[in-house]
Design a protein that fits this description.
Blueprint: H1 4-19, E1 36-39, E2 42-46, H2 59-72, H3 80-84, H4 87-100, E3 104-108, H5 111-122, E4 128-132, H6 137-144, E5 149-153, H7 158-171, E6 177-182, H8 194-204, E7 207-211, H9 225-228, E8 237-241, E9 251-255, H10 257-266, H11 268-272, H12 278-293, H13 296-315, E10 327-332, H14 334-346, E11 349-350, E12 352-354, E13 364-368, H15 376-392
Parallel strand pairs: 2-11, 4-5, 4-6, 6-7, 7-8
Antiparallel strand pairs: 1-2, 3-9, 8-9, 10-13, 12-13
Helix pairs in contact: 2-12, 4-12, 5-6, 7-8, 13-15
This protein binds 4'-deoxy-4'-aminopyridoxal-5'-phosphate.
Length: 397
């Protein structure tokens, strides 16, 4: 059956996206997602993955996943509350809590799901959420699932946050007020100003909520942005993903026992969506052991980050306000950004263009994600391509 109204809607909007250069083509990889990838029979230096520490392809995680799969099967078989909670899930949650320095933790199927789960489990009509304007899409959607009033504050603008927190609290309109921020902002690589956010929160009784998808495994000795700032006992919700530096898939919320008990009782993805498969959970457990046991991979990640960022700056590129491995190369014009990324591709470097509406108009950038696994030769190959294409497009001299 065909729906004429749906076809007309899809036709109009797909054409519009394509005309505006916003229709994303998806390139299937013919290899694992390592520092060098294979697509259409060619190899590329990969600067687009979130596999920060190379754990997605680490032999120790692969072995753990295989062994757990042989022992427990490929699926968990049920949602957590029915009979999908394996002893492995509990072990992972205990390890995550110890790693994060919190009383407890609960795991979810993805980082995206954590934000769907946690925000709506505690915020309701009569509440307010103060949200950084550059927060991730999953936070925005998580807020939408509540009936709370969402108040956006200017990106990392602590005067704006303080003023809005004061106004919301003194209005007497709201019962609970939450402040939500990314720990590390995914398009610019800057860190949230958590010490100031915590001070404002304590002055106006705000519930603090940090999504540390890009901080976990990268900052604070691997434990994340909250640990980096020494604020483990002053942030109520710590959210993270197990799909980036941790290398596998899934997400977690870490916090007090009371918070975690409530999420297990009331968060909808926990109650109504099947638990993460055993192999994935076992890989996550191994990853946390590796992160706690040695800083070697993190050190390599930061060395590669410094090397790439220094090289790009020396060539005359702007890398914006990054303070983490996320390395945007700001081009500006959307069309030029797309062309830049396509030319890098032709030169054997895979680094994606990110343009409006993902980032503000006129701030198009090619985003580079160095990892612990890149060799100096791979990064030099990328820098040589950047130099060539940058000159060609008149971006550097
Ligand atoms: N939050 C942030 C800040 C993210 O960058 C991402 C990943 N794009 C997510 C949540 C979602 O994590 P996952 O991929 O595990 O769903």
């Amino acid at each position: 059956m065909v729906s004429k109204t749906l076809s007309a809607f899809l036709q109009t909007h797909l054409t519009e996206l394509k005309d505006r250069g916003l229709y994303n083509t998806i390139d299937p990889l013919e290899s694992s997602n390592g520092p060098v990838i294979r697509m259409k029979g060619r190899e590329f230096v990969n600067l687009s993955s979130n596999n920060y520490l190379g754990l997605a392809t680490d032999r120790r995680l692969v072995d753990a996943a295989v062994q757990a799969t042989i022992r427990f099967g490929v699926g968990s078989g049920s949602v957590r509350t029915i009979n999908g909670t394996l002893a492995l899930h509990v072990e992972l949650e205990e390890k995550l809590a110890a790693f994060k320095g919190t009383e407890a933790a609960v795991s979810f199927q993805s980082g995206f799901n954590c934000n769907m789960a946690a925000i709506s489990a505690v915020m309701d009509a009569g509440d307010a959420i103060l949200s950084d304007e550059l927060n991730h899409a999953s936070i925005i959607d998580g807020c939408r699932l509540t009936k709370a009033k969402v108040i956006r504050y200017s990106h990392s603008d602590m005067d704006d946050l303080r003023a809005k927190a004061k106004e919301a609290r003194e209005s007497g309109t709201f019962e609970k007020i939450m402040v939500i921020t990314d720990g590390v902002f995914s398009m610019d690589g800057d860190m949230a100003k958590l010490p100031e956010i915590v001070d404002i929160s304590e002055a106006y009784d705000l519930i603090t909520y940090v999504d540390d998808a890009h901080g976990t495994g990268v900052l604070g000795g691997g434990a994340g942005t909250v640990k980096h700032f020494g604020l483990s006992d002053r942030i109520i919700f710590q959210i993270g993903t197990l799909s980036k530096a941790v290398g596998a898939a899934g997400g977690y919320v870490a916090g007090t026992q009371q918070v975690i008990d409530w999420l297990k009782a009331r968060s909808r993805p926990f109650l109504f969506s099947t638990a993460v498969p055993p192999g994935t959970v076992a890989a996550c457990i191994t990853a946390i052991d590796i992160l706690q046991g040695s800083k070697e991979l993190q050190d390599r990640l930061w060395e590669n980050t410094a090397y790439l960022q220094k090289g790009l700056k020396a060539l005359g590129f702007s890398i914006g306000r990054t303070a983490t491995p996320i390395t945007p190369c700001i081009i500006g014009d959307e069309e030029k950004t797309q062309r830049f990324s396509s030319r890098l591709y032709e030169e054997g470097v895979y680094a994606k263009a990110i343009v409006f509406p993902t980032v503000p108009k006129g701030t198009g950038r090619v985003r580079n994600m160095p990892t612990a696994e890149h060799s100096t030769e791979m990064l030099d190959h990328a820098l040589t391509a950047y130099e060539k294409v940058g000159r060609e497009l008149g971006l550097i001299r």
